[in-house]
């Protein structure tokens, strides 16, 4: 019988991908196995999974549950398709009551990774796209507040962030309860994908 991570990867290599079956596999395994699995995602697999996950609705409440206290950090382990520095985290939180928007539900967040000192932390505002059923991670907006332990908020056009984050939007699609798959956009779709696993503390 294949090991848990091998079984996930085998399902993902099928053509076409049965995302419901993949979701069931992810739901069955341990948090450590979910992370181990995405660490083995290559660019081709991530691109195929993003396409196969079209229409699978995800919302901000899946990223950070509605009962999470304001400014409490929720970490999503990530794996991207860059040539190097592929492992990272996206860290999210809910806003305080003072900064909750009237017309939409928002989250604050930033990218936690080894080269943040060069690019900046990559802060963003996160919200639902009800038309597509996707979650939008929008680097064109900056949050007005942050948890105390997060790095200072700086403009995404500062440092080398202008080549990475400025003008960028990520779109997330659901894979399973804990796993999402994303793609980056700058006026048009980029050949840049990433998978996230939500840590449940």
Overview of this structure, please?
- The protein is of the alpha+beta class and 201 residues long.
- Helix content is 24%, strand content 28%.
- It has an eight-stranded antiparallel beta barrel.
- Helix 1 runs antiparallel to helix 2.
- The longest helix has 10 residues, at 19-28.
- It is globular.
- The two termini are 30 Å apart.
- The relative contact order is 0.18.
Q: Helicity level, as a percent range? A: 10-25%
End-to-end C-alpha gap: 30 Å
Question: Number of DSSP strands?
Answer: 8
| Uncertain runs | none
Q: For this structure, what is the CATH class?
A: Mainly Beta
Question: Into how many domains do the coordinates divide?
Answer: 1
Task: Round the Cα radius of gyration to an integer and report it.
Answer: 16 Å
How many helix segments? 7
Q: Could you report the average pLDDT, rounded to the nearest whole number? A: 94
Quaternary organisation: single chain
CATH architecture level-2 label: Beta Barrel
Give the overall silhouette. Answer: globular
Reading the helices and strands in chain order gives HHHHHEEEHEEHEEE
